[in-house]
């Protein structure tokens, strides 16, 4: 017989401990099988009996009202996990199975939204265990029965304690049968083992409250949960924790393994940068400013991690092994890695003949196409895996379409990077860099060159006034890194400016490209302008100049418009949201779905993509200075108030405010697919978000 035991006071309760009696029993179902036992706990208070039961994951409770209270049946759904409970082997698995048999897998505590009117303190929570009732492929269900006193009030939260030795993934909790309808609690979260941390998890009901409107019975829980999420800024974070704290990018290099892999710290006065999530790893031995890199995955708060399905496919170790096995094979296809492709036939071979895939351990065929579906097509031919680049429809129609001026110009509006083109508003073009270091500031693109190229249609001044001149300007951003990058064997870099003219049919035509090299190696500044030409030498010089611009545009897109603006700049807002807004805050619930996986993707990028010697440094012209260059862009270009699409378009001169125009903006170039489609989405999102926010904040003050 189990003896009464004194239950420790809940860490979320102000009440005194009370005796808890466990009475296991077995229900028969007439089929020779017995259900798992359920433990029941009862206590006496004002001649009212309370019987409690709990269920993890998805909890449904069916209740019936009596004079003494409401009888509730709860159903909890837990999602089976690959690395968590239901899968671990060994002694702890046996202990966990015993707890399941005893009905002690999870302990739940119902929390009232109200305070006790007599004492002004929080009402006693209703505690109980759940027992497993079914075990299916996609979910495991637990059940429990208990009674809620008539004066308990509305259930506003549930405290959960995981008695297993491994974490569990709770899907949701539903309590059915209350007079006012069911209580829904969507968990979709990991619950750590009490053996890792005795702190109980709190899950709030699916109601949103502003801080001033939070029920009195939940206010302390709300604040204490935020304290947990903020952490104390000390020690190395553990994988099961949910702490959101800030740190600088001091883990991109690996100076302990090689001095060549030392990288500057991004974040601070010298290299401004958004903050990342703090991991608390120790510092490197050779550089006290740098943090040691993880051999596996880097810490992110537990609920920011990939789902287990994604984790199995996109783990850092797996992607690292695949890409580092793949790159040498691609380099083999390039006859001389220092010279690149010797001719167009060698490029065509990647599409027509493909590259033999390297063996990838522990992966079945088709894995690579799953990993990189937009880039590669993996096929099996004669028993050998072959990697072929997938061609676009445009290339199928015209193999050299990308060479043509029309496509070169179209890409600025509808290509991979439609974020950089801007209106020319000042003439002549002039650098803002220090002429003592980088040479004369004046551009080599003259008025005569432009007016000759537009064939007398108008003067440069008229073209600017009529908003006909546009520019891709990578001059001042890239020029300070030209001499540094050129120290890397087989690599070159220029600062560049590219001018376009808006024709009568509303399409862009390239006019001129200026490439600039700063003073270096005892030589003065060099700059040259390339223009469309018909003679053989001029044609190829023009094509090579366009190739340089495309390399600049691609690198700028990946490093700045993609990584910096989409990933790095968002992470501090993910951290701040979790540190400052409770999960029951309506704005938290608005933002949460859009932040999903951002931190885990960023952590993965720091391990294998943007790290020293990683894929980005190996693939883009700035090489080891790639991330440092993105820091300069953040310092000079990034502003929060310019991240909205309408503000961005106006700032680049690609639109002006016009209340009579669709979306309230008149585009400078009517055929601008990125803006045309983007503004439709922007207005839809803005309308929905505005209605949502106005519902909770009807008074703008």
UniProtKB/TrEMBL annotation:
Keywords, ordered alphabetically: Dioxygenase, Fatty acid biosynthesis, Fatty acid metabolism, Iron, Lipid biosynthesis, Lipid metabolism, Metal-binding, Oxidoreductase, Oxylipin biosynthesis
* Positions with biased composition (Basic and acidic residues): 259-273, 282-294
**Is Lipid metabolism among this UniProt entry's keywords?**
yes
Organism domain of life: Eukaryota
Broad enzyme group: oxidoreductase
GO:BP terms for this protein? fatty acid biosynthetic process; lipid oxidation; oxylipin biosynthetic process
Provide the residue span(s) of the region labelled Disordered.
259-302
One of its Pfam families is Lipoxygenase
The Swiss-Prot or TrEMBL record describes its family as follows: Belongs to the lipoxygenase family.
Which cofactors does the annotated protein need, by name? Fe cation
Give EC number(s), comma-separated. 1.13.11.-
* Start and end residues of each PLAT domain: 85-205
Cite the GO molecular-function annotations of the record: linoleate 13S-lipoxygenase activity; metal ion binding
Q: In which pathway does it act?
A: Lipid metabolism; oxylipin biosynthesis
Which SUPFAM superfamilies does the annotation name?
Lipase/lipooxygenase domain (PLAT/LH2 domain), Lipoxigenase
Q: Where is the Lipoxygenase domain?
A: 208-701
Protein name in UniProt: Lipoxygenase
Q: Residues of the signal sequence?
A: none
Question: What does the protein in this record do?
Answer: Plant lipoxygenase may be involved in a number of diverse aspects of plant physiology including growth and development, pest resistance, and senescence or responses to wounding.
Keyword GTP-binding found: no
